[in-house]
Amino acid sequence: MKKKTMSRWMMLLIAAMIVTGCTEDTQNTDPTNNKVITETVDQEATTSAADTQEVTASIKILIDGELQTDLSQEVSVPEGTTLMEVMTENYEIVHENSFITEINSHQQDLEANRFWLYDINGEMAMVGIAEYEIEEGDVIEWKLEDSDL
After folding, report:
1. How far is C-alpha 59 from the geometric centre of its chain's CA atoms?
2. Segment 33-92, tens digit of pLDDT
């Protein structure tokens, strides 16, 4: 019986040493005054910053078919950024229910059937700007022009 108890204590001692050896030492002693200095590491922030990928896209603004070079730009944003976030951050916009009605003082005109529409990589967008996530190499063209809609 004594051997069994002794074996259990040895196993418990070994397990305790393994657990203690696997934990990260987050305390250091300052040799000048023997105070314990606690260091904290925000591993989640470090990991998420390292995991975030940047994507680059071109935003082009056209009014009546003419490229507005002063408004057009390249943007680099974290992967998963929506077009609404890009437009809000880079332009002065007015929007209603995820539809842009004005970009940098250039307004659409409902009575004249003149609207802001956008294409993604040469194709008419099929989703609202709040749902569309920017992808690497996207070319987004905002067009203010007369429409048959």
Report:
1. 18
2. 555 444 444 545 544 555 679 999 999 999 999 999 999 999 999 999 999 999 999 999
Q: How many residues does the chain have?
A: 149
Residue in the structure block whose two tokens are 């002065």: 92
Query: Tokens for 48?
Result: 């998420």
Torsion sign across C-alpha atoms 101, 105, 108, 109: positive
Q: How many CB atoms lie within 10 A of CB 142?
A: 24
Q: Which CATH architecture does the domain made up of 54-146 adopt?
A: Beta Complex (2.170)
DSSP states of 43-109 as a string? HHHHHHHHHPPEEEEEEEEEETTEE-TTT-EEEEEETT-BHHHHHHHHS-EEEETTEEEEETTEE-B
Domains in the chain: boundaries: 54-146
Q: Residue 130 has which token pair?
A: 């709040």
Which pTM was predicted? 0.64
